[in-house]
Amino acid sequence: MWSKESLFIGGKWVAPATSRVIDVASPSTEEVVGRVPEASAADVDRAVLAARAAFDTGPWPRMTPAERADVLVRVADGLAARADELTQLITSSSGLPITVTQLAHVMMPQFYVRHYADLARTTPLEEYRAGLTGKLHIRQAPVGVVGAIIPWNIPLLATAAKLGAAWAAGCTAVLKPSPETPLDAFVLAEICEAAGMPPGVLNLVPGGAEAGTALVAHPGVDKITFTGSTTTGRAIAEACGRTLTGYALELGGNAAAIVLDDAPIGDVAAGLVQSALAANNGQACIAQSRVLVPRSRAAELTDALAAAAREIRVGDPFDPATMVGPLITSRHRERVSDMVAAGRAEGATVCAGGGVPAGLERGWYFEPTVLAGVDNGMRVAREEIFGPVVTVIEVRDEDEAVAIANDTEYGLSGSVWSADLERAAAVGRRIAAGQIWLNDSFTLDPACPFGGWKNSGNGREGGPECLHEYLQTQTTFRPAERPQS
Ligand code: NAD
C-alpha cells in the first residue's frame, strides 16, 4: 500500500501533531490503496506560519517573475517526469478512467503551470500613469499567503490551476487536498522540493472539514481559493466575511445543453454522452445535465441518447477501454441513486440505466442513466446530480429553452447545439453562465478564465484573470519633479 508518514511544512517533511491518518479507498475495489497523515488544526497553524514566514521574509515574493517562472517550468517538467506515478495514484484513489486521468488530470495540470510561467514572464506588473495630480506609479503586488482547498473530482488539476497562478504572482501557499484524493499532492510536494522551490512556498495539510475550517479561519491567511460545493463555498464566504479574508470560489453547476431545432441529433447525442454522462464519471461541475430539446425532436434525441448510454463501457478504471468508472464513495452513489428515484417518483421515465450495473456489485458503480419527461421543477433538475445521469426536458421554442436554462441557482456553464454556429452563438450569449460551448462542452483551456456566475462562484482560473486573483494594486503618488536650482 502506498503511504506517507510526514507532512510537508516549511520545506521539510515533518511529523504530524497527532497520529490520525487518512485511509484512501479505491472506489472500484473498496480496498485501502493509500494512507497519509491527517492534518490537525495544530498542523494547519504550523503550515500557515511557515507560509507566512516564506512570504514576509523569504526569497519567493522578492524574486523576479522570470525567476519564479523558471521554477514553475521545472515543476511542470517534474509533473511530466512522474506522470505515470501520478496517473496511478489519481486513478486508484478517484476511480476516474485511466485515459481520462492521463489527459485531464495529469497532462492538463502541466499545461496550466506552463501557462502561468509564460504569464509571469509576459504580464507587466508595473506602470506609470499620468494622473490629474501628477505621475502615479502603479504596481501589482502578490496578495500574500494563499489557502487552497481542493475537491476530489479534479485533485491535481484544481491544485495546478490555483497554485500555478498564485506562485507566479509571488504568493506562498497552504494546500489542503480532499481526504478522498490526497495522494497526488504528496508527489507534487516532492516535485516542488526537487524543483528548488524555496521552503514554505508550498505547505501540505491533507484533511477534511476540520483542517479546511482551521485554514479558512487562520488570521495568517490572506486569500482562500476554494473549489467544491456551493454549500461549503457559502460557509467559507461567511467565515471569510468575518475576518475580511479574500476568497475566490469555484462552486457547483447545473448546466443546460440547449439543442436547437436544426441540430443533427446523432452528433448531439454523441457529444452529450461525453459531456453529460461519461466525462469524469459524470462527476463534473460542467456536466451538461439538463438537455433542453424542442418537443418535435425530443423522442428522436431521447432514443439516441438512451442507445448511446447503453453503449458506454462501464468498469475497471485501469482498463483503457473503460469510459465510466465508479462514483467516489458509497454515500455519493446513494445520493445519485436517490435523485434518480426522486425523478421517477415525480413522473420522469428512466430510458436507460437507473441502477447498479450487473456484474459490478463490488465498487461504487452506477449505470449511465437517461431520464426523459423531466420538468425543470423536479428535484433531479434543480439540484446538481454529480453522477452519470442526464435529464431530457422538452421545450416549446428557443425563448423557453433560454428561460429554463437560466432558471437555476447555478451559472457555471452551458452549451448550444445547432447546425448554424452563429445562431448557436447568439443563443449562448443569452445563457447566464461563465463558460459556453458550441456543439461541444468539454474542451478545457488554460487560457480560459474559467469560473462561475450566480451561485457557481466568483473566482477565475486560467488566463491573466487568474493571475490577478493573486495580485493586489499599490499606487505610489510621486510629487511633481522640481526644477534643480
Ligand atoms: P465539498 O464542498 O464537499 O468539499 C470540497 C473541499 O472542501 C474538500 O477539500 C473538503 O474537505 C473541504 N471542506 C469541506 N467542508 C469545509 C469547510 N467547512 N471549510 C473548509 N473546507 C471544507 O465538495 P466536493 O464534494 O469535494 O466536490 C464536488 C463539488 O465541487 C461539486 O459541487 C462540484 O460542482 C464542485 N466543483 C466545482 C468546480 C468549478 O470549477 N466550479 C470544479 C470541480 C468541482
TrEMBL record:
PROSITE patterns: ALDEHYDE_DEHYDR_CYS, ALDEHYDE_DEHYDR_GLU. One of its GO terms (molecular function) is aldehyde dehydrogenase (NAD+) activity. It catalyses: an aldehyde + NAD(+) + H2O = a carboxylate + NADH + 2 H(+). Residues 13-475 form the Aldehyde dehydrogenase domain. The active site is at E250. It holds the Pfam family Aldedh. This is aldehyde dehydrogenase (NAD(+)).
